[in-house]
Every structure is written in structure tokens, then in C-alpha cells.
Amino acid sequence: MGRQQISAVALAVALGGATCWATPAFAQTAGGSAVTQEDLAAMRAQMTAMAQRITSLEAQLAAAKQVPGSPQLAASAPAMAAPAQSAAPAQVAVAPSGPAAPQAAPAAGASSGQSLPAQVAKAASGIRIRGYTQVRFNEIVSGDKDAPAGRSRLRSVHDGSIGPDSNFFIRRLRLVFQGDLGHGVSFYLQPDFAAAVNSQSVGERRDNYLQLRDAYVDVALDKAHRLKLRVGQSKIPFGWENLQSSGNRVPLDRSDAMNSAVPSERDLGVVAYYTPTHVQQIWDDLEHQGQKLFGNYGAFGAGVFNGQGVNRPERNESVMSVAMATWPFRLDGIGLDGQVLEVGGAVLHNKVRPEVRAGGVTEANFEEHRVGLHAILYPKPFGIQAEWNFGKAPEFDTASQAIQLKKASGGYVMAMYRIAHFGGGTLIPYARWERYKGGWKAAVNAPRLDTNDIELGVEWAPIKPLELTLAYARMKRAEADERRSGQAEGDVLRAQLQWNY
């Protein structure tokens, strides 16, 4: 007899037995005798026992459905319809504790009983998908849109749409896939569908190519997940703004100075992060308030990477070593209740081989040393953010017409004012000054940048899925091309719409 038939018979026996138990109590009522408190208590006990047995038998029936080849419920209907024999309580009690009960429980929860689509659906339910898209419009309203050969034009290493003949431009189109794999292991994958490729026919650029940005796995090294090891292509812990997501940053672009150490912010390697519990609590509180944090990184981080740059093959046997620390302080009790000041710094050592115009990379390694400092007073409502770095980096020398190791220094200072309730959303006006003198190793021949920009802007998020940023910049900068000299100047108006999903 199948398990489902056994369960059906047990259900019939249980119901029959419960009916027999209840008969004397109801007979007394029918005969006109007074019902005592003891009678009511006995009836309640009998009804409770009957409900428990029904629940147990229903579980057995549900479990029997998971067993391949079990008879359908209709097949056991005659057994349920059969007249109940004299079922003593002891006989009914055997049904839940019989052989069917312990076998049914594993069958109900065993993954082997699930179909392949069900197992795939269960695995997919742990994967989270999100992303954002940024569409920009830039216009050089005055200044050096173009220039004679050998002279710098008004251009930016962060935004290829700044130029004489540009209108709308997809700056980023990111999708993020992340999930928990269990046992303290999680993964993160982020492609970008709006990358540009320059090596096309006659030098014409192509936009909106698919490019890998992040692909790493996190392994927790403690039960609280405060210490984790990250392996794969991920962000390099140098610079607070470099770690901050582009979808979460207030200004449209990162500063030339901080980003010159780690262009595109990523590389392939291994890095460890650690965050004390009380530090994580401060960051959780700030995130709950709607503040723009620097991301899922630790208070302390140290790692090694290839050092050649994102999506570029390694060119030497050396690795880039990086270490960073950041620490938030609550300013309660000094007249700034509710505000948080975060300070920290980072160090970087690398040996890199920049690309050369003749093709390939330099034959020799160029050692790079950087030290960076940062401080952030989170806006509540006024805030300030500043970073500075200095050291040595590869840079093209016009006198010798060769790449040399030279001094590099610069940073930025930004003031913000956060209006938490404006038009149903959040409004953040800001003003930023950035300065940098040094090489840009991500470009051919590591040209020298000389940047001195002032930017005024405002970010408005009327609803959570949408952010609109308007900015005016007075730019004074050298073009990232060693064949052009001097600084270009001009005024640029910019607009960006970002939608989050």
C-alpha cells in the first residue's frame, strides 16, 4: 500500500476515533443532563487532540505527494469512506508515530525531490539585479573648443563628449549582479554597456561597447563578516572619491588628481577589508539618513594588484601594493550634534609600463609612489569634502621627448549643502575646486596634465529612481596629448539625467 493510502486510512481512523470519544459528552447534552465544567474540559481536550492529529496527517499527505509514483488522492478515497472500526485512542496514536511519519519529513524538505526548474528558481532567487544609466548633454559656451596643431584644446580625460561637435551622450549604462552563495561567500559582477573604443578605422571612436568593470568574490573570514577577502577585478582602495560609486557621487566626474593614481579605479588582484562593528553602525546610520557614502569597503583595506590598469594585460612581474584607512567620528557634544567627520589616508606603490605612441609599452618599469589624504564632513545640512595626494608618477618630458619619473600632486575641495526635503526629494548644491600637476599614465606616452577647474552645480533627486545634475565649470587645463602644449580655457555647461533600477 502506498504512503498516501496509509495516511488516508489513518485520517479515517483518527476521525472515527475522535467521534467515538466525543459521543458520551454529546449524549449527556441530548438526554437533558447538565453539562459540568469537567465535561467541557474533556470535550476541549478531545477536540484539541483531534486537531493535532488532523494537522499531522495533512503533513503526511503533503509529503506523500512528493514521492514519485504515489497514488492520487482519489485512489485512497474508498479507504477514507470506509466505516470506522472501533478505534481506541491507543490505535489512533500509532498513526502519527508510525513508519510513514519519519520517512515523510525528509521527503518534504529534501532537495533531491525538487525538479530542476525549481532548483534553478531557488538559486536565482538569491541573485539581486540593479543598475543605473547616465545620459549627458555638454556644451562649451566659450573658450578653446578647437585650437591649432600643437596647442591644447578644451578636453577632459573623464568625459569624451566635451568637444566642439557633441550633444547627447550615454556616459554609463551599468548592470549589477550580486548574491550570497552561502557559507560567507558572495559575488559581485558589473558590466558597462557604454564603454568607448578608440582603435577604430582612421582613428574614429566607437561608443556603447560592453566592457567588464567588476567581477569578484568576497569570502568572509569571521562569523560577523567584518573581515573579508576580495578576489577578482575590483576597485583599488586609494582615494575616497575613487571608491565612491559614480551613481552615488555628487559631481559629474572624479577629480584628475586623485584618479591619476588609479585611472578607471579598478584592477585585477586580491584585497582584504576589515570594518569594526561600531564603525559599521555609524555608516549604517548615515546611509539610513540618505547620505552619500563611499561604498561597500572597510575601515581598513590592503591589497595587491597587477598594476597595469583595468582590462589591460600585466606587463611585468611586479605587483601594485595599496593600503588605506578611514575612520568616522560623531561630533555630538561640540555643537555639531548629528554630524559625522570622516578622515583617513592611503599609500600606493607600483611599477608600471605606460603605452607608447610607436605601439606596445615601455621596455622599462616606472616606479610610482603616492600618498593620499581625505576628510569628509557629511552634509547635515552643510558639508565639506577634500582630498589631496602627492608623490611621483611617469610623465612625458617634452625636452627629452621621453617618459620620465616626475613629481605629481593635487586634489580638490568641495563644499555642499543638503536640503533633505525639496520638491518631494533631495537637493544638493555644491561648489568644487580641483588642481593637479602630473602625468596621466592611462594615456599614450603618459602626457602631463595641468588642471585648474572651478565647478558650480546642483543635484536634485525629485524621486528615488531619478537624479538630475546641472553644472557650470570654468575650466583651465592641458589636453592629455603630449603633442599639444599649454592650457586651454573655457566655460562649459553640463547636464546629466540618471535613472536607477
The DSSP helix count reads 9
The coarse overall form would be elongated
Strand content: 35-45%
For the biggest sheet, the summary is: 16 strands, antiparallel, barrel
Order of helices and strands: HHHHHHEEEEEHHEHEEEEEEEEEEE
Using only C-alpha atoms, the radius of gyration works out to: 34 Å
Strand runs, count? 17
Distance between the termini: 54 Å
What structural category arises from helix and sheet content? alpha+beta
Stretches with pLDDT under 50, minimum 5 residues: 1-33, 69-111
Strand order of the largest sheet: 1-2-3-4-5-6-7-8-9-10-11-12-14-15-16-17
Averaging pLDDT over every residue, what do you get?
85
Q: What is the chains' assembly state? A: single chain
* Helix percentage: 10-25%
List the helices and strands and how they pair.
Layout: H1 3-30, H2 37-65, H3 77-81, H4 89-97, H5 100-109, H6 116-124, E1 127-143, E2 168-182, E3 185-197, E4 206-220, E5 227-235, H7 240-243, H8 256-259, E6 266-274, H9 277-288, E7 300-305, E8 320-330, E9 340-352, E10 366-377, E11 382-397, E12 402-417, E13 419-422, E14 425-439, E15 448-463, E16 466-477, E17 488-500
Antiparallel strand pairs: 1-2, 1-17, 2-3, 3-4, 4-5, 5-6, 6-7, 7-8, 8-9, 9-10, 10-11, 11-12, 12-14, 13-14, 14-15, 15-16, 16-17
